[in-house]
User: Fold these one by one.
Assistant:
Number 1:
Amino acid sequence: QLQLVESGGGLVQPGGSLRLSCAASGFTLDYYAIGWFRQAPGKEREGVSCISSNGGSTNYADSVKGRFTISRDNAKNTVYLQMNSLKPEDTGVYYCAAGTCTKHIGRDEFGSWGQGTQVTVSA
């Protein structure tokens, strides 16, 4: 069974940085595109970024373009989300999932969700 575990969240001041990790357990990530999603209190879960299985294709939500970078290290069975210039509106629980990476970064194209890691951007 596919199991993904997120880590790296925390409290950071506006303008700061965090790097999230999504580690696979019990299977190899090589064959899967991975997406990052976030959910703020009272809001729908939204797609943030995704990366193809070989890392050759990436997509980003307009709200994070130029600030976030997704990458993967298949040797470590891990996908990363580097988040720079963080804003209060980036606050939420961040999830990773396995699926199909398209420009839409749609929730319905992903499954095997992790438990999430909390990111709070506040002064």
Number 2:
Amino acid sequence: VQLQASGGGLVQAGGSLRLSCVASGRAFRNYNMGWFRQAPGKEREFVAAIRRSGAGTFYADSVKGRFTISRDNAKNTGYLQMDGLTPDDTAIYYCAATTSVGPFSSVDQYYYWGQGTEVTVSS
């Protein structure tokens, strides 16, 4: 499956962005999906994940209550709604897909990755 992430940009602290991840090539509904981010000089870290059916969601503690992951399998698209952004959220955000059952927070569990979309939050 090929993944294309978009929706990043420059936003002020406290603002919102919605990232999208469009899948092609194989049935998106067969894959669990995750969002990760990587800030300059740091390792890639887990942000959120959603099961293939959309029935289960998982979040990093740092974004819980501010970010919402969702998906629309009919549109082959996943989303990450980001509210209450802070400068610490500045990073390149990647969507990823896997048929693995978890742990969804592990980079190693994901087979397919999008190219990343950059999010910059100014103070």
Number 3:
Amino acid sequence: QLVESGGGLVQAGGSLRLSCAASGRTFSSYVMGWFRQAPGKEREFVGAINWSGQHTYYADSVKGRFTISRDNDKNTVYLQMNSLKPEDTAVYYCAADHKTGYLTSLIARYDYWGQGTQVTVSS
């Protein structure tokens, strides 16, 4: 089970840190990803992190503003979001890929999903 938290309302230019806590199984060996879905739009890739945390991969739209990290001892993945823009408004989901073994933006590769947390950025 994956549970996101940390969403909320923030002004443009502000920051938020999302957390994704895993339970029920150990996700420390899994690639973890963050995705988001804005109203009326398809779910899109935000970024991913490998099992050790040494490698990350980001969508161009968030590169340089968002940072993914993980604490395997806590079975938790984080998404630090800085310089937020109104277009970052969406429901943010974390997901786990236990098969692929490399960083991927493909939604179909991810097997486990959280319920999402709302992020709203006001202008």
